[in-house]
TrEMBL record:
Pfam family, one: TTC5_OB
Tetratricopeptide repeat protein 5 OB fold domain location: 304-414
Organism: Ananas comosus
Superkingdom of the source species: Eukaryota
Residue ranges of the region described as Disordered: 1-20
UniProt name for this protein: Tetratricopeptide repeat protein 5-like isoform X1
SMART domains in UniProt: TPR
Amino acid sequence: MMSGGEPSGESDRVLARAGESADELYRVRDTFFPRDPAEKTCRLQTLTDAALALLDSLPPERRKSPQQRAVYEFLRGKILDVFADYRKEAEDHLSKAVKLNPSLVDAWLCLGNCIWKKGDLPGAKNCFTLALSKGPNKKILCQLSMLERSMAQGAENHALLVEESIKHAKEAVMLDIKDGNSWYNLGNACLTSFFMTGAWDHTTLHQSLKAYQNAEKDEMMKSYPDLYFNSATANKYLENYERALHGFEAAALKDPGLGADEEVKKIVTLLDKLEGSMKEQVRSKRLTSLLSSLAEVNLKSSPKKSAINVLSEGLNKAVAVVGKVLLFVKHDNIAPLYYLTCDLDKSCFILSVYGLHSGAIKEGDCVTLVDPFYRVMNFSWKGKSYEFRSIRVDFAEQIFVNDKPPAPHHSVRATLRLQNKS
């Protein structure tokens, strides 16, 4: 006779084991990246079948209480929803779960993720908001932050949505400052903000990188290739080329499908072009005639004219470098623009410009660079050494082309290539 507490206790144990199976299923989804994607699909399907079989070992008559039925429906929906495509069956089970137990926060989380996949972003946000009404939760806050970034794409109020995304990401971190996933999510929010605001405010890039570094302190996150890819992306735009190369290489080793090896090739090709253009121009006899017009440039504002040789590493305030654009260096990424440039002292350097269209500056133009950010690049990669000097221009207000500010129509936004694990 099945009465008393024993059957209920056994039912709870079966549900607990099914919950562990579901967690393992998602761990494999997020950390297993074989070279052949079909291998991952096969493993997920095998684990899904096993988890569902475990759930099915609990017949309906053993799921008596509303709480047990809610957990059963939640786990079934969660297991079915592990794949990238939308599954209506998963949504149906998760919907039943939240109806049976509206306080089941994890079910609201899974339901939100599920309907997000079918493109119902407002519906997903409603699920996450309802879950948060039950109390603060770092997982919900992170998913809400991710969703808001997704909603910002192409939206008129994109700046407000990204601001909300950062706010919720920070709230998640404050709930558990040791949780690597929360830090990773904050890094993504800041990186998205950088691109959404026109790819010029490097303060947000530094904030992003700091968040990624905190995420890496969590051992759990070292299995997530997206963390290394996105951190490398931030380093690339900060022109920390060596760190970017190491980051993309690490991401490629963890997940060959990310395309991080292509990012490595792009950076190496770019570096070869930059250094090659420097060496070629140093040998050129055209410099003297090209630079004759630079001495005639008169600064209309307060910065004093300076040569690159006397700049300090980093930001040089109240200083302006006058240079002649010798060569536009073409490369595969949209931003920044790279130019081989030479100052009055015949010192060549690489000028990188953010937020402007390639038509804004042409070869032969005279450029005045206000408050220049100066770097000396000197590192090795795979046995090859790279050494050149660089000035970075983050704002259109920092550059004058032939004594004139860039035209408004030359402003441009960079596009975002960010990896987001679900």
